[in-house]
Amino acid sequence: MLRWWLLALATLVLVAIAGFAALAWQPSLPPAALPVTAFDPSLVARGRDLALIGNCNTCHTQEGGKAYAGGKPIPTPFGTIHATNVTPDPETGIGQWSLTAFVRSMREGVDREGNHLYPAFPYDHYARVTDEDLAALYAFLMTRRAVRHEAPPPDLPFPLNQRPLLAGWKLLFLKAGSYRPDPARSVEWNRGAYLAEGLGHCGACHTPRNRLGAEIASEHYNGGEAENWWGPPLNASSPASVPWTEASLFNYLRDWDPKHGGAVGPMAPVSHNLSQVGESEVRAMATYLTALMGPPSGERLGRTEAIAARPDAAPDPRLAAGERIYAGACATCHASGGQVPYTVNSLAYHTTLFGPDPRNVIQAVLRGIRPPEGAAGAIMPGYAEMLTDGQVADLLDYLRARFSDAPPWTDLERKVREVREDIPPTSGSLGGAQVESTPDLRRGG
Predict the structure, then answer these.
(1) How many domains does the chain have?
(2) Looking at residue 41, which CATH number applies to its domain?
(3) Model pTM greater than 0.85?
(4) Which end of the chain is more exposed for a tag (fewer CB within 10 A), N or C?
(5) Which residues pair with 225 in a beta bridge?
(6) CA–CA dist 56, 438 (Å, integer)
(7) 236 and 163 in a common domain
(8) Which residue has the higher pLDDT, 29 or 423?
(9) What is the spatial distance between Cα 152 and Cα 68, in angstroms, rounded to a whole number?
(10) Which of 26, 183, 7, 48 is nearest to 100 (CA)?
(11) Dihedrals φ, ψ of 2, to 5°?
(12) DSSP H helical segments within 109-254, as ranges?
């Protein structure tokens, strides 16, 4: 009887292994030459807008590199993934990819050769995109300048560097099927949901992840992180001191809002890209996202105005050191009542000073702020070489107490040190990577 059970168990194990192997194996698709006939210009133009909404240029262009030629390191909790070359180069890019191969990669996370792709490439969102939009995106990428550039392999430990294991991740977390409109919602809301949940992949940064790196569905838009930045919640738990409206979020997503300021960090290139697409697309995204956050509260706005009107002097002697740093390094611009271009009336308007995570404020103080090259925007010097970890912590203690009614952050000096260690010596700015973009004709660019 024991031998029978052992034989049955061994059979089950072999069947399971064979089943997983069948699931993990993906066929290589035949190489395809670029179409002899040119792509329709209107299709390419549509693909251009979709690529901007998807922020494709930011991830697939390394600093100082050619547009879409890959190589940019994407840090993850498991190691570093390098973005691939998506120019039509036949050897190092996607020049031999058919539309079928491209669609498979976007929806199933499998490249032309049959290799599983790491979900740093957010195909769990792209799976929702329609056939028509994928065809337009394909046309746009296939009409970019071909660049021969081999992206470095992923820097991952064993066994995470074994791509077949990703089949198990997909089995657990990848849901097939394009976006289905909600008939109870408006056309604009559905359009915004389609863009935000699909190509925009907003949840990738604004939803917490589990230990396997997948978004936690039950905590949709409840706050996440990207590249050591905190992604604030985009649902009813948003700590924004000034309630978001459709108009203010539209302004923020495209450029600048007087009540909320402008995007920095990983969000800066997103905003820069969205400034170059049709306004109706961005308005639709703003409609969808503000609906998730709920109607604005007048009480919250009144509370923020009261905080902004407080006197600047620190009431607590323990905050005096931070108050002096603020007075010497920050007040010239931030105490101007919004008179300095691209500053809000008060730091009390900034969501991050009310949030549970201080990393965004630390990043701003250490790195500084400048807009993407060729764009107008906020400029702030970085203080990484002028302030010690303790001084930055003192400054943040003061800012939190002076410009919010939230409890103090804890263990700030350690958190400052960790963020500082993550900043390269020749770091750029909060404006994000300088990437190729289509000229913005509205600004004469």
Answers:
(1) 2
(2) 1.10.760
(3) yes
(4) N
(5) 230
(6) 13
(7) no
(8) 29
(9) 14
(10) 26
(11) -60, -45
(12) 123-126, 131-142, 166-173, 187-197, 203-206, 246-254
